[in-house]
Specification:
This protein is mainly alpha-helical. The protein has one domain: Arc Repressor Mutant, subunit A, CATH 1.10.10. Helices cover 50% and strands 8% of the residues. It is built from 3 helices and 2 strands. It has a two-stranded antiparallel sheet. It is globular, with a radius of gyration of 13 Å.
Length: 80
């Protein structure tokens, strides 16, 4: 399997893990919570933390699989 194919398959698995996670939480969850609970937290020392999970969530938003709604001061991700 080529590297690009491996990456595509890995992305699909990570997206499915996020979908499964949100299915268990109808109230939704914020990015940091998702990253922490799924073991996707960034080790990066700079300002852009947990970008991997945020990028995956962005793809799911674009596909219409998840949505965001303002809840108090937060905008949790929820299944669409």
């Amino acid at each position: 399997m080529r590297a690009s194919e491996k990456a595509k398959a890995a992305r699909a698995e990570l997206e499915q893990a996020i979908i499964d996670y949100l299915r268990e939480r109808p109230e939704g969850a914020i990015n940091n919570q998702i990253a922490r609970d799924l073991g996707l937290e960034s080790d990066f020392e700079g300002r852009q933390k947990n970008y991997l999970s945020y990028s995956l969530l962005g793809g799911l938003l674009k596909k219409g699989v998840v949505k965001r709604e303002q809840v108090g001061t937060k905008k949790p991700f929820k299944l669409a």
